[in-house]
Amino acid sequence: MRWLPRTVRWQLILWLMLLETLSVGLFAVILVKVEGQEIRRRALERLAHQATSVALQAEEAYRQQRPELVFPSLRMMGEAPSVARAMITDKTGDVLFVSSGDAAHSPLEPAEKAQIAQIPEHLPLVFSFGDRRWEGVKAIYDGANVRGYAWVETDRAWDTEQLDTVLRGSISFGLIWIGASGLLVLLMSRSISRPLSILQSGTRALMEGPGISANFPLPVTVDNEFGDLIQAFNRMVAALEEQRSGLNDTLSLLDSMLANAPIGLVFFDRQCRIVRVNEVFAEMTGVALSRHLGRTLPEVLPERIAKRLEGAVRHVIESELPVHDLELEGRPGESGGRWTWLVTAYPVRPSPNKLRWVGAIVMDVSERKRSEDALRRTEKLAATGRLAASIAHEINNPLEAITNLLYLLRGFCHLDDSALNYVTIAEKEVQRMSEITQQTLRFYRQSTLPARATMEELLDSVLDMYSARLSTLGIALERQYKPDLDLFCFAGEVRQVIANLVSNAIDATPGGGRLKVRARRSRDWVHPQYEGVRITIGDTGSGMTEEVRNRLFEAFFTTKGATGTGLGLWVSHEIILKHHGIIHLRSRAASEGGASGTVFQIFFPDNEELTGRVAVEDRATAKA
Ligand code: ADP
Ligand code: MG
């Protein structure tokens, strides 16, 4: 109903007006009907009475033999407001007198004449003819004989005028009534429409969001049910506001947790699409935080990992049970280096029996994993070391026996020159074997107490061990150390450090070059109060790129594939730190331009107190 006004107020007024107009109309119709009948009844009565009165006067005039005396009263009758015309006719219906105009020119109409036969004795007759014309007629008697008839015709205009007056009166009363009640409703409806519009604007302000404090509480302008409604509305808004601020607090708590937790957090919807992640998870995937939303895992992670993680999420969706400690491993090259994630996925239910999201906690345990592995491998290594040492020890005795036997063999007189040559070779090889076992024993037979060691002896023992490899590869060795240089240290461990550095230098110089080993008294270049020994080992080998330089001291970092362990420098670093020493390197790879090569410098403080303390701590940890 598009024509209907949009406000309650005007709808009320419109319906009221319609209803009242209808009822006033109905009232007018009934009034006209009833009043019309009444007016007609009275008109007929009057007509009969008027006809009788004219007839009586005519009888009187006839009795006095002066019929013309009837004329004044006939005219008077004609002047009456309800009468159109009054006439006297003779017995046949010829007009004798008429109230106005000429009698000769106003004869009876045939329909009127036809009524003469119907006129009852001594009584008036009222009849209608033509279009709404009424006439009353009565016989005029002269004794018992009829002399003629008295006719009175009514003037209908008068009747309708009366009806008009009644109608006009009631219509104007109706209009006043409609107007007054409209005004009343207009005034009363303010108490409905005002609070309604206040409520409406309040609701709109509420929906448009913040700024609640500016618009609320809504003014209570009326004291009725609508006032109560506004008050209830105000109370509801206050409660909502309280809830909303509580919710905001909780949300900001959650947000800060999500942003600052040192673990990756990610949420999925039931289609395994990501709905929320935190910064840490974004760092883990290497994809910008905003680019996770709405995506699936294969879009942000390498396919193999994504499949496994997604499988866990699906399992949670189907079983509605959490999945704990799923271990995911990234292979080197798949995305960066090797890493391990520990994932726990759990259902998130906004209501007790409705799973809406799946949350996942992703922890990067690569570091832990690596050190666990390292620990395991070191243990294995230590065990192998102990085994090697015990084998070396066991081999030593038979070796001594063989040496002695070879010595005896040489003394036999009937050995020819070539046999003697074989004995010499065998002696040399046995000598080499015994050297190897000696070295092995020296490495693993941990000296439990530090002692003063001669640097020359220490460095020579290592370099001699590598002399064969050095000459095979064509590496020129340059030694720069004085015989009187000594150091209070764990000789076995210092020897291990030097062996590691020399072996690396040899590995880096497969096509020949130079190896320089230098040792001299020096001062700690960070804490100059410590005096000690600085050992420099430099090679002209391949050098290292920046990436290698940065990761050099990590356990298991190697560029040598299966032949490397990646433990040499890590162990060396540990040993140096334990001695409060320093290791420093300069290296340049061929790709960086210029001559390639590497120089390691190590400083060991020569301080009996400091190194003694290390020994005590060492024993303490060993016991623990
Ligand atoms: P490994 O020798 O088993 O590889 P290390 O810890 O001894 O383990 O060395 C780690 C890595 O450092 C080596 O793989 C190598 O790439 C690099 N490196 C160490 N010393 C040198 C050197 N003198 N010249 C070039 N690279 C070196
Ligand atoms: Mg090495």
* Content of β-strand: 15-25%
| Average pLDDT over all residues | 86
Which molecules other than protein and nucleic acid are bound? adenosine-5'-diphosphate, magnesium ion
Q: In percent, how helical is the residue content?
A: 40-55%
Low-pLDDT runs: none
Q: For the record, what CATH class of the largest domain applies?
A: Alpha Beta
> Would you tell me the structural class of the helices and strands?
alpha+beta
> What's the CATH H-level homologous superfamily of the largest domain?
Histidine kinase-like ATPase, C-terminal domain
Separate helix tally: 15
Coarse morphology: rod-shaped
- Number of separate structural domains: 4
* CATH architectural label of the largest domain: 2-Layer Sandwich
CATH fold annotation of the largest domain: Heat Shock Protein 90
Over all CA atoms, what is the radius of gyration? 66 Å
Distance between the termini: 93 Å
In spatial order, strands of the major sheet run 2-1-5-4-3
